[in-house]
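User: Run a structure prediction on this.
Assistant: Running it now.
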Amino acid sequence: MDLRLLEYFLAVSEELHFTKAAEKLGISQPTLSQQIKILEDRLGAKIFKRVGRKVYMSDAGNILLKHTLRIFNELEHAQTEINEFMGLKRGKLTIGCSGSHLLREFVLSFHEQYPGIQLSILELPTEETRIRLLKNELDLGIVYMPVEDDQLETIPLFFEKFSLVVSSKHKLSNEPFVKLEQLKKVPMILLAKHYIVRQFIDNDCKEAGFVLKPILELSTYESLLHLVSLNLGATILPKSYLAKINDGQIREIPIVDQKLHKRVAAIYRKDIFIDKPMKTLINHLSQNFEKKIF
């Protein structure tokens, strides 16, 4: 079967819109429709269902999609192995990360030792990292555990703790430590609920017998810190992030009875071919984070 037809099929399956898929491919919409018709004729089955202006995958289309992804994945592996055989000394790796602060020092040391390997680091929620790994859109993920998926391999890196962060003017700023239950009456500013760190916090509080109801929910550590420095509320952040913060307007206070002690791990697909750049990256990660705890 012509691989070009499968490329056209993948484009439509991703967009579920013939015009958008045609624009993505750089061809006209009628040409794309004709090529899909040719593919359907060869298969003897409809692979898309059209209901009004909506396009849906048929059962046959879903079967074809599964095998098409496998075909292109194998082709990528073949190219990688050929590159290895030919002595490729350069490479590019894309990493999905639960926070770029987790890799700040690692990136500097890795680049010094392996300047020929290009790293692209994307800050993504844990679940999105998992999904994009399975779609072959990422080479590696750096995430908070647990991530449960039989298709993924896990390499433990280090344990992460979390601290309460307040303004230097906050009533708790001079406390040597706090207990979780003390936060029940403290105005809190937290990440939105879909972030794994927020889920850790909510679960700990639930086990302690209460629910935190933040006055604000934001999407970045930086925005949380900014509002905390203005004494608008308190927040909870990873110690690995706070380790690089030098701001006299905030105070970091240990939470002594917390269970917020989470494993950070590297994850990748079990079925991928581990080429030299990937092997180098994994080895360097393991050595860089060995026995580290924040």
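Residues 59-85 form the longest helix (27 residues).
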